[in-house]
Amino acid sequence: AQKITQTQPGMFVQEKEAVTLDCTYDTSDPSYGLFWYKQPSSGEMIFLIYQGSYDQQNATEGRYSLNFQKARKSANLVISASQLGDSAMYFCASGGYQKVTFGTGTKLQVIP
Amino acid sequence: GAGVSQSPSNKVTEKGKDVELRCDPISGHTALYWYRQRLGQGLEFLIYFQGNSAPDKSGLPSDRFSAERTGESVSTLTIQRTQQEDSAVYLCASSLVGGTATGELFFGEGSRLTVL
C-alpha cells in the first residue's frame, strides 16, 4: 500500500524567493519512484521531477530540486527563484510495483 | 498525435445514464492509469493496466465502474447508472513501463463529466 501526505494546503512565496513544498510517503514496496507534478488552473498535469528510491543523489531539473530523505520518507520539492508562472497546484506522487498514488496537493501562490 | 488522447473532453449526462470515457495512450506505452479528480481535489487512483491486464483495480469506487483495455492500446472507462457524485474530471495517463521502473506519467487533458 502507498500513501502520500502533503500537509500544506496552501503556500505563499514572494517572487524570486525559494520555496519548499513538503511531501512524506509511506510504501511497502522495496523499490519505488517519487514524482512531482504541477497543475495550473488550465488543468493540465505537467511533470516536474522524478527520484528513484535507489538514486544516491537528489534529483534536480532546472529550478526544481527534490530533497530526498529516505530514512524520513520525505521527498520535498524545492523551487528556487520563484516566478509568477509557478502559481499552481503541486502534487507529490509515489509509484511502486504497480499503481502511482498522488497526494492531495499544495496550492502555491507567488506574490509579485 | 504524439500525446495521450481522451474523449470526450466534456460530457453532460442525466443521472442514471451510462457513460463511456475513452483513452488512447502514447504508442508503445505498456502502462495505463485512470484517475478521478473532483473539483478542487487531488487525484484519486481508479485502476492501472499493464498491457491489457489490470493488476490493480482497488480504486474503482463501486461495481458501477468498470474499465477495459485492448492490448496495449485504447482503454475505456465505463460508468453505469451515473450519480451526481460521479461528476469530476477523469484523467488518463500512460507510461513506457509500469512498476518500479516507472518513469514519467504522460497525462491526457481529461474528460470532464457532469451528471445532472
Write the layout of secondary structure elements.
The complex is a heterodimer of chains A (112) and B (116).
Chain A lengths: L1 E4 L4 E5 L4 E3 L2 E4 L5 E7 L6 E7 L7 E2 L2 E6 L4 E6 L8 E8 L4 E3 L3 E6 L1
Parallel strand pairs in A: 2-12
Antiparallel strand pairs in A: 1-4, 3-9, 5-6, 5-10, 7-8, 8-9, 10-11, 10-12
Chain B lengths: L4 E3 L2 E4 L5 E6 L6 E7 L6 E7 L2 E4 L8 E5 L5 E5 L8 E8 L10 E2 L3 E5 L1
Parallel strand pairs in B: 2-11
Antiparallel strand pairs in B: 1-3, 3-8, 4-5, 4-9, 5-6, 7-8, 9-10, 9-11
Salient structural properties:
heterodimer, A: 112 residues, mainly beta, 4-stranded antiparallel β-sheet, 12 strands, 54% strand, B: 116 residues, 7-stranded mixed β-sheet, 11 strands
Summary, kept brief:
The complex is a heterodimer of chains A (112) and B (116). Chain A has strands at 2-5, 10-14, 19-21, 24-27, 33-39, 46-52, 60-61, 64-69, 74-79, 88-95, 100-102, 106-111. Chain A is mainly beta.
Give an overview of the whole structure.
Chain A is an all-beta fold. Chain A has strands at 2-5, 10-14, 19-21, 24-27, 33-39, 46-52, 60-61, 64-69, 74-79, 88-95, 100-102, 106-111. Chain A is built from no helices and twelve strands. In chain A, strands 2, 5, 6, 10, 11 and 12 form a six-stranded mixed sheet that branches. In chain B, 0% of the residues lie in helices and 48% in strands. The termini of chain B are far apart. In chain B, the strands form two sheets. In chain B, strands 2, 4, 5, 6, 9, 10 and 11 form a seven-stranded mixed sheet that branches. Chain B has a four-stranded antiparallel sheet with strand order 1-3-8-7, with no helix packed on it. Chain B is mainly beta and 116 residues long. The chains are: A mainly beta (112), B mainly beta (116). Chain A binds chain B through residues 29, 31-33, 35, 37, 43-45, 47, 50, 91, 93, 95-105, and chain B through 33, 35, 41-43, 45, 48, 50, 55-56, 58-59, 89, 91, 93, 98-100, 102-107, 109-110.
